[in-house]
Structure formats: C-alpha cells, structure tokens
Automatic annotation (TrEMBL), chain A:
<dbReference type="Pfam" id="PF02775">
    <property type="entry name" value="TPP_enzyme_C"/>
</dbReference>
<protein>
    <submittedName>
        <fullName>Pyruvate ferredoxin oxidoreductase</fullName>
    </submittedName>
</protein>
<keyword id="KW-0560">Oxidoreductase</keyword>
<dbReference type="GO" id="GO:0030976">
    <property type="term" value="F:thiamine pyrophosphate binding"/>
</dbReference>
<dbReference type="InterPro" id="IPR011766">
    <property type="entry name" value="TPP_enzyme_TPP-bd"/>
</dbReference>
<dbReference type="InterPro" id="IPR029061">
    <property type="entry name" value="THDP-binding"/>
</dbReference>
<feature type="compositionally biased region" description="Polar residues">
    <location>
        <begin position="150"/>
        <end position="169"/>
    </location>
</feature>
<feature type="domain" description="Thiamine pyrophosphate enzyme TPP-binding">
    <location>
        <begin position="52"/>
        <end position="221"/>
    </location>
</feature>
<keyword id="KW-0670">Pyruvate</keyword>
Automatic annotation (TrEMBL), chain B:
<protein>
    <submittedName>
        <fullName>2-oxoacid:ferredoxin oxidoreductase subunit alpha</fullName>
    </submittedName>
</protein>
<feature type="domain" description="Pyruvate:ferredoxin oxidoreductase core">
    <location>
        <begin position="268"/>
        <end position="370"/>
    </location>
</feature>
<dbReference type="InterPro" id="IPR002880">
    <property type="entry name" value="Pyrv_Fd/Flavodoxin_OxRdtase_N"/>
</dbReference>
<dbReference type="GO" id="GO:0016903">
    <property type="term" value="F:oxidoreductase activity, acting on the aldehyde or oxo group of donors"/>
</dbReference>
<feature type="domain" description="Pyruvate flavodoxin/ferredoxin oxidoreductase pyrimidine binding">
    <location>
        <begin position="22"/>
        <end position="246"/>
    </location>
</feature>
<dbReference type="GO" id="GO:0006979">
    <property type="term" value="P:response to oxidative stress"/>
</dbReference>
<dbReference type="Pfam" id="PF17147">
    <property type="entry name" value="PFOR_II"/>
</dbReference>
<dbReference type="GO" id="GO:0019752">
    <property type="term" value="P:carboxylic acid metabolic process"/>
</dbReference>
<dbReference type="InterPro" id="IPR033412">
    <property type="entry name" value="PFOR_II"/>
</dbReference>
Length: 317, 410
C-alpha cells in the first residue's frame, strides 16, 4: 500500500531501498534523486520501464543492476509502449488468475529523458495516453540529450548553448521556445499531469503518490539539473534547483482531468531569471552586452507563463 | 471463462483466418497490433474473439507497428502468451524492436504475411520483409498454404516458449496468395490444440516480485559478444526442439512437418529450392516432368532460421543442377537464399551447379509453366556439365531477358 504520510526528510530518504546507490550517473546528477523520491513514496510493487538515456546506461550495466524491482529498457522511444504492454498483460493475467501474487498492488512507471519524451518518443507516449493505460510516465527534464553529449532537444530553452545549437560570434544558442509538454499532455485529457522538482521533495512525493494512485495514464515532468551539460559544480544540484523553482523558470503545478490547475509552490521571494541563468555555464554568453535582449526575452516569457498559470488556477477552467 | 467456438471437422479458411484461429486456441493473453494489408484480418479477428467472449485476453490497438512490437515485448516480459501480425512497411518499422525482443529472449509469435517493401508501393506478396528479418535473431518458419499457417502458428508457441529455446518466432505466409485464398483447413479441437501448446511457464516474469528481474541491460565489449554468441547458440540448439515439436504435432494431427522437406528427391538429378507458395507450384511442375521421365525434385525450406544448412546439403548433394528461387529484390548481389544454399553445397564433394532465379516480386504470378522452364534449364546444365545460362536471372520479367554473371565455360 502506498505510504500517505511522510514525516520528515530523514525518514523519507531511508524509507525504501529499491534503487541502489551503486550506479554510474555523474556525481550530483538529479536523475537518481528523482528515482529515489519515486521509490520512497510507495511500498507497492513496481514495474519500471526506461527509455535510453543517462538513467538507463548508468543503472543496468551487465552484470550489475541498480534496480531491486522489475525493470526493463527496450529503446530510446518506446518505454511507454512497453509499460502499456506490461500493464495489459497484468490485466489479462489478473482475469485469468495466473498471477503469482494477485492481491499485492502493482504500479507501472515509465521514465524518459526530455529527448525521448518531447522528441523521438512523443508518438509512443501520446499513443499510450490516448489508450488510457494505467501507468505513470515521468520525464527527467534536463533540457538536453545528455547521454549523447549535450545536444539540443525541444525542451532546451531559448538562449542555452548546446553542442547542436551553439552560442558563437553569430549565435546566442538555441533560438526556439521550449515545447510546453505539460500543456500537451494535459490536452490528452490525462487524469493527472504535474510539473515537479526534486528540491520540493514533499510536493514531489505527493505528486508521485497521486499519480500512482490515480487510475489511468498520468504524466509528470520534473526538472533534473544536469551538472555536466548545464555546467555547475556537482555539489550545487539542489541549489540550482532552488534557483529554478524560485525564479519560476520551473513553476510547480498540477493539472487534474485536463483542466483543473493548482499551483503547488509559490516562492516567497521570486528571484530574477538572471540569478538562475548566471549560476550555469550554458548561459554564460548571454551576459555579454550584445545578448542582453535574450535574458529580457526569457524573463518576459517566464512572467507571462506565471501570469497564465495563476489566471488558469483562479478561473478553474 | 471463454465462450465455446463452434468448429467443424473441415473448415474453409483463408490463411489469415487460420492464423487467427491458432491465436484463439493457444489462448493468447495479449495481442498488441497495428493494421497493414494483407495481414490485418489476423489481429482484427483476435479483437473480434475478445469482443465476443471467445477468448479472455487483452487486445491493444496501438498507434504504430513499432509500438505494437514494443508493447509485445513489455507484455511478454510480464509473463504471458503474446502475439501479433504484420507485413511489409509495418515489418520494417518493427525491425528495431525485433532485435530487442530476441535479445531479451522473449517468445513472442509474429505472423508475417509477406509483402513487398516500398518504393514503389505495392501491397502484393514477395519475401522482402522476410529477408529483412533474417538476422534479427528470430526463428522463421514458412507456411505454404492456409492449413500450414494454422498448424505452424500453434507449433510456434510451443517452440518459442520451450525453456531451452526462449526465442521469438515468425510464421510467414504469402500475401494474398495464402492470406486471402480460402481453402479446406482441418482444425484441431480447442482442447487438443490447447493441450498441445500447453500453459505458458514464463522464465523471468516481471510480475513475480519475489524475484525482481532486469531486462535489457547494457553491455559493451566486455560482455556483448558473449551474449550474442549465446543467443546464436540458442537458435542453433532450437533445431532439435523444432523437430520434436513437429513430431508431436504429427501425432495429434497426422500432418508431418520437417525443417527441410524434400519432394521426389530420392533419385532427382535436378532440383528447385524454394520457400512459400512457390513450393507447391514447383511440386506440380516436378510431378508433371516426372511423367516425361525427367528426374526433377523440390526442396522446400520450412524453417529458414535457424538455417538448416546440413539438411539442405544432404537433400541436394546428389543432384547435378539446382535452381534457387529468391522472391526478393537482390539489391546488387546474388539472392540471399541463393547464397545460403550455395554455402551449404560448397562443402559437398559433388558441388552441384547452382543458378539463382529472382522471381515473383511484388506479387507477380509464378506459374507451373515457369517452374517447368526453370527445371528444363537445370536439365540443360546437368546434360552439359556446366551452367548454360547467366548465373543470376530474373524470371517472369517483362521485356528483354535480364541476367547477370556469365558462367565461365570450361
Ligand atoms: C533510435 C535511437 N536514436 C538515437 C539514439 C541515441 N541516443 C541515446 S540516448 C540519447 C539522448 C538521450 O537524451 P534524453 O532523452 O534527454 O535523456 P538524458 O540522457 O538527457 O537523460 C540519444 C540521442 C538511440 N539510442 N536510439
Ligand atoms: S550527464 Fe547530466 S544527466 Fe547525464 S548522468 Fe551526468 S549529470 Fe546526469
């Protein structure tokens, strides 16, 4: 049964040990924090599928595995379909009575990076949501293809430099807006969609629990700061995440049944995006005078989005 | 409990319907599928059996063939019986996942209704899709008519799910020629069929939480080679298991299957080697030529993967001239099937002459007269003691003769 009350961080962080610390993710990588926060918020049996990416290549390198639960990696794009297939089999076997332990609860979860979720795997994700499989899809949004060395994805924000959208003498880096995956997934009519962050561990645990307990396909986008490609010191992962949530670059909110929007975190003091951008190497070039307008554009975009979220929350539509 | 489905002792079924009945009788738990001509009715029928209570299962209508095979992989790892069907472009879209399924040793059964690959777009049958899958680590078997599409689909579950095999299995049938032609089919009763296939006994069941499993781990140069070698060995070791399953099937049905099936080969001097419906055409041609005193025979490859090299060699080593028929565009080389048969014959003392015929692409009809003509060319070779034509020829093509690789005459 899922744990419903989480008392304190110490209890939470030691609750459940189904994801072993011995993996080869970079020190300071937020992917592992997020996986642990998921594992630690439930005692239910878990079937986890994972798209190709940093999480996958670092946690199941034969003959080792970090996963002390049922886990599968197939390809870069199809973890959602595999989770859907496993969930269909669960239903079929439950009806037929061929499950070993039919009474213990089972939850299906798929992980993808932003590359596999926003880009190549989007068709598979969308299809699985339309079909209504009972599973939770968690996107580890580090805003780039980290595993192949930091290329742009459609989650990369304006102004970031990546290996395939480089800042240079004639370019300030990525020019296109980040795809609004949360709105897109909510538009599928999914019963629960949220954007969460690992520093806000309580709201993250609650969001995960809601997703696991809600019948049908649930989607969670979580910011996952990548020290390697965002270029910050590995010890600063949570500090950077704090800047991300307090600057509202990553607002924390949920959308229920495709329309009911709730903001889950309101910073006491909203900081400027400059404070967030300035803490990372990937935005360093924006602080040259000729690219000042890009920072202004980012700030404008963040302000407008926050305004929109608040209005939607208020209007309950 | 599923509703009873009424079956006559003799039914008139096309190959698609026959394959779908095998899915029903094997009580497949999950079919995840996407439609493509000419294989679509197989999965539509499964969906209809579920909708009408003839089978307790889950029909998952996904958004593409890639997702279909991906869902089959997830479902199979979750410990139940899984199947789907496809053709041509759908098969091509599945290819990435075919390797993933076999690498994870998941006994999925895929009914492939063979069809040409675009471009140009064509819905009719040739073996381009079968050849595209030949290195994907799946067992591949060919059904030459509707009865066989039914029989082999049942055998496929029993072979793939065998604990010493644990591999996915494709059952091929020729698009439209088999899939849409109604023929007499003699089904087994539901009980006999299910007892033959048996309950699935999953090996690494993702829904057995007492023993967590990791599927699809990463390996680099330290282990990858070993895994692939073991997978290859598993395919090779499947050969006697396939034979045993065929023998068991003969006991309950009276129908005999072999990995390589020889027709009038005992004293044959010339032979056609083929796959699919062409085999029956070639057999008719051989029978007619026998009446004229020409010692013709046919070697049919029933199981294309694992390739029965030794059986092909044994069947052909005493003939003088062999025609190998490839129903796939060769893409700037000899036909793949020709290469494999030639490799089998290279180690024989007699080394029969081997010619490659590319035929029937995109559903072009292959008639008995054409088979006879090919036989007669083999006779000319046998009489001359060398190949008298181009080594590779396009047979049944419009316009002037198209042949490649002139023989060196001695
Ligand atoms: C079909 C296919 N195309 C490309 C790749 C190469 N590839 C592997 S991981 C990856 C990027 C992963 O990025 P993302 O999903 O954002 O995850 P991250 O590594 O950033 O966590 C790419 C391009 C692949 N494995 N499969
Ligand atoms: S490259 Fe980034 S996402 Fe990948 S393991 Fe390192 S920190 Fe994590």
């Amino acid at each position: 049964m899922a744990i419903t009350s989480i008392k304190n961080l110490k209890e939470f962080s030691t609750n459940n040990d189904r994801f072993e610390g011995a993996h080869t993710l970079c020190p300071g990588c937020a992917h592992s924090m997020i996986v642990r926060e998921l594992m630690n918020c439930t005692d239910d049996n878990l079937v986890i599928t994972t798209n190709t990416g940093c999480l996958e290549v670092s946690t199941a390198v034969y003959p080792f595995t970090s996963w002390d639960t049922s886990w599968m990696h197939i390809g870069f794009e199809n973890a959602a379909s595999a989770a859907g297939g496993a969930e269909a089999m669960y239903k079929a076997r439950k009806k037929k009575g061929t499950l070993k332990d039919p009474d213990s609860p089972v939850k299906f979860v798929a992980f993808g990076g932003d590359g596999s979720t926003f880009d190549i795997g989007f068709q598979w994700l969308s299809g699985a949501f339309e079909r209504g499989h009972d599973f939770t899809y968690i996107c580890l949004d580090n805003e780039n293809y980290a595993n192949t060395g930091g290329q742009r994805s459609s989650a990369t924000p304006i102004g970031a430099t990546t290996s395939t959208a480089q800042a240079g003498t004639h370019s300030y880096g990525k020019k296109e807006k980040k795809k609004d995956i949360v709105a897109i997934m909510a538009a599928h009519g999914a019963p629960y969609v949220a954007q969460l962050a690992p520093n806000k561990w309580k709201s993250m645990a609650k969001g995960f629990q809601k997703a696991l307990e809600t019948e049908g396909p649930c989607f969670i986008n979580t910011v996952s700061p990548c020290c390697t490609e965002w270029r910050f010191d590995p010890k600063d992962t949570i500090n950077i995440t704090d800047l991300a949530t307090d600057s509202l670059m990553f607002p924390i909110y949920e959308i229920i049944d495709g329309h009911e929007l709730n903001i889950l975190y309101r910073p006491k003091n909203v900081i400027s995006v400059e404070d967030y951008l300035g803490a990372q190497g990937r935005y360093k070039h924006l602080f040259k005078p000729e690219y000042r307008h890009v920072i202004d554009e980012i700030q404008k975009g963040v302000d407008e989005y926050w305004e929109m979220l608040q209005r939607r929350e208020e209007a309950r539509v | 409990m599923a509703e009873k489905f009424d079956l006559q002792e003799r039914e008139v079924w096309d190959g698609n319907y026959a394959a779908s009945q095998a899915l029903r009788q094997a009580r497949v738990d999950v079919v995840a599928a996407y439609p493509i001509t000419p294989s679509t009715p197989i999965v539509e029928n499964y969906g209809a059996y579920v909708a009408n209570g003839y089978i307790d299962g889950e029909f998952v209508m996904v958004e593409s063939e890639h997702a279909a095979m991906s869902a089959c992989v997830g479902a199979s790892a979750a410990g139940g019986r899984v199947s789907t069907a496809t053709s041509s472009q759908g098969f091509a879209l599945m290819v990435e996942v075919l390797y993933q399924a076999s690498g994870m040793r998941l006994p999925i059964v895929l009914n492939v209704v063979n069809r040409a690959l675009a471009s140009p777009l064509n819905v009719r049958g040739d073996h381009s899709d079968m050849y595209l899958g030949r290195d994907s680590g799946w067992i591949q078997m060919g059904a030459f008519n509707s009865q066989e599409a039914y029989d082999l689909a049942l055998c496929a579950f029993k072979i793939g799910e065998n604990h010493s095999v644990r591999l996915p299995v494709m059952v091929h049938q020729d698009g439209f020629i088999t899939s849409h032609t109604a023929q007499n089919v003699y089904p087994l009763s539901d009980e006999v069929a299910y007892n033959f296939v048996g309950d699935i006994d999953p090996v690494d069941d993702m829904l057995d939480f007492s023993r967590p499993v990791t599927y699809g781990a990463q390996t680099e140069e330290d282990w990858h080679f070993e895994h692939k070698a073991k997978q290859h060995k598993a395919l090779m070791d499947a050969r006697p298991v396939i034979d045993e399953v065929f023998e068991e099937f003969e006991k309950i049905s009276g129908r005999k299957y072999k990995r390589v099936e020889s027709y009038m080969m005992d004293d044959a001097e010339i032979a056609i080697v083929a796959l699919g419906t062409t085999v029956e055409t070639a057999r008719v041609a051989a029978t007619e030529l026998r009446e004229e005193g020409i010692k013709a025979g046919v070697v049919a490859i029933r199981v294309f993967r694992p390739f029965p090299l030794d059986q092909v060699r044994d069947a052909l080593e005493n003939v003088k001239s062999v025609a190998v028929l490839d129903r796939s565009a060769p893409g700037g080389a000899m036909g793949a099937f020709f290469n494999e048969v030639s490799a089998a014959l290279y180690s024989t003392a007699s080394r029969p002459l081997v010619t490659n015929y590319i035929y029937g692409l995109g559903g072009r009809d292959f008639a008995v007269s054409e088979a006879k003509r090919i036989f007669m060319e083999q006779k000319a070779n046998a009489d001359a003691g060398h190949i008298t034509t181009d080594i590779q020829q396009f047979s049944g093509l419009r316009g002037p003769h198209l042949g490649f690789f002139q023989t060196k005459r001695s």
